[in-house]
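Narrative of activities, Objective 1.

The group set out to show that a structural description can be obtained from nothing but a protein's sequence at a throughput compatible with the screening campaign. Below is one input-output pair from the validation batch, recorded exactly as produced.
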Amino acid sequence: MLLDNMDFVQELDGHYLLLDAPQQGGFEENMMMRAAPACLLPLHIYQTDPRRYAYEISGRESLLKRCGRGALEAEELRDILGSIYRTSEEMERYLLRPDSLILEPGLMYRSRGDWAFIAHPGHQEPLSEQLGSLSRFFLRKSDREDPETAAFSFAFFQLCHEEAVTLPRILNMIEEERPTEKLRHKKKPLSLARLLGKRD
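Output recorded for this entry:
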């Protein structure tokens, strides 16, 4: 599998994540190397092994490392998912597949408050399935004592695991609805769309 041969290396000019490159990267490889949106970590061919991709992660904190400092709060969950949504939109504008994103908590990075993601031309796991895995991670790592956070993480989990809910439906719901001022006091089940909202 793609992540089975993952390495982290320290070079003179920075800290890098290494992943095996596919035999043919094609259009996506060229686009990710030369004109990728800012929400993606730049892709490079590793200088000492052209069969590997290198992503610079210097000065960035992974989501997994962030969770080592304490439980996630609702606003952080909202920020992460909103960033994934906006990234998928940007990728489609660049004719890149959102399924090429790798949504592993240890490979999602933040720097100065902004999230950036790794995309790989050889990655094929549907984004909807990755979001399902992420929803289970959120349930384990979020603040269960905070009512808003608990409601948010559970609503996201439910939505990701409804059989009829697809990724386009999730994204459409996020786009169409926005959180209300009474969100913290709402007693009815909370939808992912109302919890996330789309930022202006």
